[in-house]
Amino acid sequence: MNAAVRSDEVLVPYEHRQSAHCETGVISGLLRHHGLPMSEPMAFGVSAAICYAYLPFIKFGGLPLFAYRMPPGHVIRWLTRRLGIRMHMQTFRQPAEGTRVLDRHLSEGRAVGVQTSAYWLSYFPPDMRFHFNAHNLVVYGRRGDQYLISDPVIDILVECEAEALQKARFTRGVLAPKGLLYYPEYIPPRVDLPRAIHKAIRFTTGMMLHVPLNFMGIRGIRTVARKIRGLDPGHEHYNKLLLGHMVRMQEEIGTGGAGFRFLYASFLQEAAAVLDKPTLTAIADRLTAVGDEWRRFALNAAKMCKNRMAMDYGLLADQLMLCADQEEAIYKQLRAEVK
Amino acid sequence: MKKDEVPQQNAKAFMGHSKLLYAVDDQGRYVPAPCNGWEAEEIVLDQAIAEYLRLAEDAWCRAKDGRASALEYHMYRQRMDVVLLAQTTGYFKWRVRRDLRPGAFQKLGPARRERYADALGLTPADLDRLPEQP
Hints:
heterodimer, A: eight-stranded antiparallel β-sheet, two-stranded antiparallel ribbon, B: mainly alpha, 434 Repressor (Amino-terminal Domain), 6 helices, 2 strands, 49% helix, elongated
């Protein structure tokens, strides 16, 4: 790698490609940077990141957690494990040390992924800044006091002051990044993609269909549907917050429910070509239809929050049940395909 | 979703940026599709921000008549709540709740003020200050 070094400027040539989700975007970008062709949907699928979990015991602003994907860190860990890639991952106790090591990597011509809070990044539009500690981005250079950043969810290259980046990397609390930085250390000359895809699909369908807990996978979707049906109409302020929160988790925080369905469907299309299984393309089409249903649910719920539509918990519950039924059929068929 | 059905409703929160979705083209193949705003997202985002503003304004009014500390106002202002502030500072929730009371807040030692200020991205002196408007 050729790093153009001037006294106060370091710049590693890095190709910025916008992506739908931060973690898959960063890891696929870093792998491409190191010469391994990898699309974002492929990274998402092979890491088996799609999921559904309703975790009422974890509160987020007083509201339960709805997760539409595996927990942060899962993508990087499982994608690299399934492909035999070794990552260099490092966390720090002292913020100053974390910044020093970041600078050293840059001056050695290495673009690195870092985990940050989304709230303290100065280039984020103010209305999009929330305390979410597992955002990921690539630092590819430094110009004076500004770090040059390729943030996969933003359409353009951005810059961030050193102080703000350090604060974002060392915020404390749940999922505290502890300054985590990472880059691929070893990529095998040949990766066995078909085998990895096979294993990943087994994992995903197992998560969605066969975890015997009523808050995970398809069962989780049904639990939430029943919960919405049973909401007390007397607590409308809370109910609206809950529904809005659900939609926000679904559509915004990391592209969420429908977005992830589309991402996974895109992965299935790619997988169909890699495994030479055209049936996966048909499954992808069905998953697209479910994604559309999730979006209709989101739009209805949002309109009800804003009184643009009469509040109807039964309707929302029916829509979720429909999503659950359709997804169950899809994952069953998918599991049969990769027997 | 088809690529030409991707909503483009120019959300003000995006400030001219767009986010990326995946959608299908005419041949049914998935392609990246930018989206610069969607009604559903905009509604729920506004709702979440309005809720923090409501809490901040309420805390501001109470802080004005001395029934709450300025710390409580700053907490909501920075889009936090007791749980999040406790997690970020590493203090117990009951301790944060106690420190939010005006009396306990006055007696905070410099180390603890520093810790709260750091969690909120403010200087320790800012913690006392209440703006003219919420």
